[in-house]
Design a protein that fits this description.
It is a single chain. The protein contains 16 helices and 11 strands. By secondary structure, the chain is an alpha+beta fold. The strands form 3 sheets. Strands 4-3-5-6-9 form a 5-stranded mixed β-sheet, with no helix packed on it. The chain has a 4-stranded antiparallel β-sheet with strand order 2-1-11-10, with no helix packed on it. A two-stranded antiparallel sheet has the order 7-8. Helix 10 packs antiparallel against helix 11 and helix 11 runs antiparallel to helix 12.
Length: 442
């Protein structure tokens, strides 16, 4: 029986794979839901057949990557081979005699490890600690009794032992050593995860020395990782926007395109598609009429562009509204902008309620055991903190985020390195800023 291993958001999950197809993506219709914001709702599928697991990405989405190279078409997954889908890491373990031969240097990664599940094709239950002789049901019952109930509000009372029960320093560090010469992106994430765990003084010294030794390489890896994540944003918010909307003929859409493009160029100066983007900007800039003042229709399109799809940015929308009102002398336009402000605040509240509801489901181990995914709850709360403009909503989401046991300094540190704009938004909130300072990240 093959096992699919998913590493995402500082967590490792294992699922049994039987013959047939398994879809993966960020949407509810996907069999295996991924929390990464750089994954489409239905990003692709894995089909288990007689020759092993074959991964295919859907048309129009960013392809999976192996060793930094895109895996276009059908990819037969070899034992221990790491496949990146956005920031999620997928790999396969086959039983002896099953699947294709592992790639050179990864045979050891296919060695048997603790299994999970009870025969279902995808099993979301977390595996028990290898060393523990206590039955899993009893351990969970004790934790729930101590916490006083389940659900999203187990945040602060969940046992800290539970968050680290699957951590084995020697296993994880050995894997880092194996992968750093073949998959630097994957190795970088493993080292981040290790650094965020509770380590002995000797282990901490070893990890710190590794970080220092490979500091230059890791900076390059972080840059590559940022560019990889940015590609999806470019494809959806710029390339697809240019193709599907009248960017080349209508001023309001042209202005929004140019604003997004200029931000992208400044944020990702080493991205490999900048030459292509600059050619589009040359075509669009005359249509945008940059020397003309903004009109109400320009504002409407700009607010729509910030809040209509994920990742939503209500703070940016409110900044645009405030700036327009401050600069316009047209009373009618100002009245229209104020009405737009109210619509935007209503939409922001709906977004907050939606994400809070989503998090309540995926962090309720008692009521929804098959949907228990702490990494999804983390992502939901992060999106509220980063995307909302109203302080009360951001502060509330920050408190809930810090209450999730699985939200570790390593996750926040990974944002700082590979998603600095997200990190800066997070630490604007006092509670998260205190958490970052206590972890030595500021």
């Amino acid at each position: 029986m093959a096992r699919l291993i998913l590493e995402e958001g500082g967590q490792t999950r294992r699922f049994k794979l039987s013959k047939g197809k398994l879809t993966f993506g960020s949407g509810e219709s996907a069999t295996l839901r991924l929390a990464s914001e750089d994954v489409a709702e239905l990003h692709g599928q894995i089909e288990m057949g007689p020759d092993g697991a074959v991964l295919r990405t859907a048309k129009g989405v960013m392809p999976a990557t192996v060793n930094g190279r895109p895996a276009n078409g059908a990819l037969t997954m070899k034992s221990g081979q790491v496949v990146l889908v956005g920031s999620a890491r997928l790999s396969i373990e086959y039983d002896e005699g099953e699947g294709p031969a592992p790639p050179p240097g990864l045979a050891a990664a296919a060695a048997a490890s603790t299994r999970s599940g009870d025969g279902a094709r995808v099993n979301y239950r977390r595996r028990p600690t290898k060393e523990s002789a206590i039955p899993t049901w009893l351990l969970v019952a004790v934790i729930l009794i101590a916490a006083g109930g389940g659900g999203l509000w187990l945040f602060r009372d969940t046992s800290t032992k539970m968050a680290g029960e699957e951590f084995d320093f020697q296993t994880r560090y050995s894997r880092y050593q194996r992968e750093k010469g073949e998959d630097k992106l994957g190795a970088r994430q493993i080292l981040n995860q290790i650094a965020g765990e509770e380590l002995t003084a000797q282990q901490r010294a070893l990890v710190d020395a590794e970080l220092a030794t490979y500091a230059k390489d890791l900076v390059q890896v972080d840059d590559a990782l940022r560019n990889d994540r940015a590609s999806k944003w470019l494809n959806i918010r710029l390339r697809s926007y240019y193709d599907k909307w009248p960017v080349a003929s209508e001023r309001a859409h042209a202005r929004l395109f140019m604003k997004r493009a200029k931000w992208f160029v400044s944020e990702y100066p080493t991205h490999p598609e900048l030459a292509y983007l600059r050619r589009l900007m040359e075509r669009v800039e005359p249509v945008s009429k940059p020397g003309m003042p903004m009109e109400l229709e320009d504002l409407r399109v700009e607010v729509w562009g910030s809040t209509a799809a994920e990742p939503k940015d209500f703070a940016l929308a409110m900044e645009s509204i405030d700036k327009f009102i401050a600069e316009t002398s047209d009373a009618g336009a100002e009245s229209g902008a104020e009405a737009l402000r109210k619509e935007t605040l209503d939409a922001e509240r709906e977004f907050y309620d939606e994400k809070l509801g989503d998090a309540a489901v995926v962090y309720d181990k008692v009521k929804y055991p098959d949907k228990y995914r702490p990494s999804d709850a983390i992502e939901d709360m992060v999106r509220v903190v980063v995307g909302c403009a109203t302080d009360s909503l951001r502060n509330d989401a920050a408190d809930r985020l810090l209450g999730i046991t699985e939200f570790t300094p390593a996750i926040l540190e990974s944002y700082k390195r590979s998603q600095p704009s997200r990190f800066e938004k997070l630490v604007e909130v006092p509670a998260i800023r205190d958490f970052a300072q206590s972890a030595g990240l500021l």
